[in-house]
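Researcher: Last one for today. Full complex below.
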Amino acid sequence: MTIPSIPKGTRDFGPNEVARRNYIFNTIRQVFENYGFLPIETPAMENLSTLLGKYGEEGDKLLFKVLNSGDFIGDLPASAFISSNASALANKICEKGLRYDLTVPFARFVVQHRNEIIFPFRRYQIQPVWRADRPQKGRYREFYQCDADIIGSDSLLNEYELIQILDEVFSQLQIRVKIKINNRKILAGISEQLGCPEKITGITTAIDKIEKIGLDNVISELHEIGLSKAAVDRLQKLLQFTQQSTDEKISYMRQWLDGSELGNKGLLELETLLGYVQWDNINNIIEFDVSLARGLNYYTGTIIEVKALDAEVGSIAGGGRYDNLTGIFGLAGVSGVGISFGADRIYDVLLQLDKFPQALQQNTKIMFVNFGDSNVKYLLPYLKELRKRGIASEIYPDVAKIKKQFSYANARNIPYVAVAGEEEITKNEIVLKNMSSGNQYAIGKDKFVEHVINILKQS
Amino acid sequence: MTIPSIPKGTRDFGPNEVARRNYIFNTIRQVFENYGFLPIETPAMENLSTLLGKYGEEGDKLLFKVLNSGDFIGDLPASAFISSNASALANKICEKGLRYDLTVPFARFVVQHRNEIIFPFRRYQIQPVWRADRPQKGRYREFYQCDADIIGSDSLLNEYELIQILDEVFSQLQIRVKIKINNRKILAGISEQLGCPEKITGITTAIDKIEKIGLDNVISELHEIGLSKAAVDRLQKLLQFTQQSTDEKISYMRQWLDGSELGNKGLLELETLLGYVQWDNINNIIEFDVSLARGLNYYTGTIIEVKALDAEVGSIAGGGRYDNLTGIFGLAGVSGVGISFGADRIYDVLLQLDKFPQALQQNTKIMFVNFGDSNVKYLLPYLKELRKRGIASEIYPDVAKIKKQFSYANARNIPYVAVAGEEEITKNEIVLKNMSSGNQYAIGKDKFVEHVINILKQS
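Model: Here's the assembly. Have a good evening.
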């Protein structure tokens, strides 16, 4: 027998995992809603034209493409179907792709529905995304993102509120984190100061890897993209300058960026934001990290990344400001800022730190033993009433040996079992057994439902 | 400017639609849980080998296939890429497909995880499915199914409980329905009696269309599949025999099926199930309908279909027993029975009948007007405290004209707006405005949060 399997990088979730995942989703959702964010949902499939070119060349390769239905070949000549041409060909035989993140579909949503939307628009979205990444620990091909964005306002108060949300969610989940912030304009200013503003993408891509590959390798990469030795040396000093206080970092950066208008604008934004943060009792550490770059090209201002302090899993949340994301869909001048929680990595952290609350799973509270039809008929009104009162209840469906029925209840961790044999039926009673203590006693059938509700309240 | 769009047959959901959809999902989920069902989730993508051949030839065509990543052409000769070969070729360049329903993935799940599962296993699953069907009113290419199945028990009590669930959910949603039931063994018995047991699929496929295409067209189709005139005449009498009481129908069928062991077994199952249903106060109509066939081939016993009485949308729920679904994945002898709610059609019915409860949307309750940083700093503790107490609150992010800020609150239907100008700050007060009455008054800042919570409770 070949055991069936699922595509690599995807997962099945059993009842306990679903309950734990819902605990994460519900925590995040409740905080989003308390901050005035409204939910939207978008389709799993987007037109490929919506997705292509939004995530860089690498991102395009990682899109899952959906084959056109029916005759997908049509007029394409057989000569088009050669391996070296696979990538271009894919876009001819597929016009749809699976959602790669929630930000680009959100930008598309905003442009498409701009006449119905009241700006500034605070939306949240909790849905799966798909990436054809190489699966590895903590990286899946299907995973959930939980995003909150504010679009149509360039106030830095929005960034501040998103930082409050990050702080609140991780406090509630009992995960200690460091919230790192930087500003893309500072990174642009750095490129300017190094005399190569056109190399900003290369520089940020290299810097972004500092934690993964170490400073030496970042420096090699900076040489490779054509930075002069003097520029690399200057940048190196900056990247090694990480241990000081925030005020020291900012005044150092002010000197370093002297003369770069863009760089100073970024620095001013950063200072303003850090000023807001000081108004408040933030539970977690906020750190200005000039090496923080974030891969996605659409960011133009503040960038944010969150790391768990007590677990090694990469970033568990992040975000930033994008001044022109809707511009790619034809709606210019709408600034947005957002954050995204990586629910799957948060799951792994909670598991590793043993921080999931006990008894998350909504389980059956009472099972009725089945001795046959007349017995079921006797028990039915109580089963039905308990369910109506919101007590998860079941009756064993088969007329099996009582031992088998109790084994099932035991294996399922059902705390109470109810039995009514001929004697109990004659006496208008039902026997209730506490499965953990083994205690059992008869109850008049008219008092049965109230009794069960009371003992469940107490336990 | 080209307005971006989404693939045909898919939909965006705004905040109000999400709230209404969640009302449906939560109602169904709560009933499932009260009946002891546990949630699972499976990946959106399954291996094509899991999906192909499970939904009939038509179903295979309606599967969305996901193109293999990278070089999907590989060793395939260019000559393979011809239109007439598209369908076979698709299976060579795609090894994954999108979930078409929740039943086959569930069967796959049961076989794959059979050593962790406690049988009988009561699972529910609420997830989207995708079908490359021609989009039309009430039929989408991405839609949600809400399934409950019991696997590992052949007791008819399971069917009975599923009927109770159908009755309970539609009662709670205030949709009046007719629950039609039949039994696949009766249909098999009919084919036997007509002398062509091998034609059961053709016969049931034809019968299944009676509501859509009418009796005359069904009869033509029966001739087309090669039934003799005598057989068609005999069947026609049966199909016209629909107005009698259930008891009359059953005794008529008993005569009709005389001599067919399978047919009589089906009839006995049906009678037993209808007997159970009579134990109970079912709110909705239960009807034995011998023309009910249900398209899916994997059913082997009871079949169920639910129609709304007050709206024309086709079936809004359905299900049945399958004795050997896990057999296709190598695990034989496990009988299951399940139902599926079509959330999208239920949505359309609730909308049409105006049965959605008011005020489902979780909206911001209070907005603070923003006069600039020092003003925000003054208001911040109250904003934060309200959010902590679970009151959805926001501060307008920009220092815009007060008229603009009030317009926003108005458009968003935010019921209360809080303002603190210089005067209020000096007096340690905050002004609260009721947006619907226009009333406004000052409150001492220390009493502000309790006051807001109190008036929100009253409204």
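The two ends of chain B are 45 Å apart (CA to CA). Residues 318 and 438 of chain B are 50 Å apart (CA to CA).
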